[in-house]
Amino acid sequence: MQPLTHALIVIDMQNDFCPGGALAVTGGNDIVMGINTLMDDFRSVILTQDWHPRGHASFASSHPGADPMTVIDMPYGPQVLWPDHCIQGTFGSDFHGHLRTDADLIIRKGYNPAIDSYSAFFENDHRTPTGLEGYLRTRGIERLTMVGLALDFCVNYSAVDAALLGFDVTVRTDLSRAIDADGSLDAAIAGMRDAGVALSA
Ligand code: VGL
Ligand code: ZN
């Protein structure tokens, strides 16, 4: 059993990121049981939930003529345009049906219509906090293990932000799966290593 100072953060294990979903990650459903088992080792488990309003600015459908998986410039920087996904209250935004949800905290992100939020800590402007840092610090949590979807987007951004904030971060790559568009996985691995994130299989 891990000490109280070490939390497990399970990123975006939702139907839309699993096979059959709107933004399916290959093998996204294969990691559910392993994550459930890993939860047994932790006294503190936190789930994140991608949670977009209809017409969110990160959806290609909100930008006439734009195709999904292309990149546009937003006021806060480049933004990949995604298929509509994880719309609040829909089946796609629900957690995978077999995922354990007996967590201490479920933190939602991406609800601001104008800004995407890959990281569990900050929106994509890298400034607007979600409140997760305060939650962890006030509970005395110093160490984080992260798993989930997608390794090259939300897991990556969450892990790098956590490391920059001073948390001791490990990503279990065996319990994560990647979108891997245009070299995004290799870039994410390099970025996490540079930030001091431990990658463990
Ligand atoms: C994610 C793209 C868009 C993720 C969320 O969870 O990695 N990726 N929204
Ligand atoms: Zn999203």
Automatic annotation (TrEMBL):
Tell me the CDD domains matching this sequence: nicotinamidase (cd01011)
Pathway(s) the chain acts in: Cofactor biosynthesis; nicotinate biosynthesis; nicotinate from nicotinamide: step 1/1
Family per record: Belongs to the isochorismatase family.
BP term (GO), one: pyridine nucleotide biosynthetic process
Name the Gene Ontology molecular function terms of this record.
metal ion binding; nicotinamidase activity
- EC number(s) given by UniProt: 3.5.1.19
Q: Taking every annotated instance into account, which residue ranges of this chain make up the domain Isochorismatase-like?
A: 7-199
**Keyword terms:** Hydrolase, Metal-binding, Pyridine nucleotide biosynthesis
Q: Does the keyword Transferase apply?
A: no
What name goes with this protein? Nicotinamidase
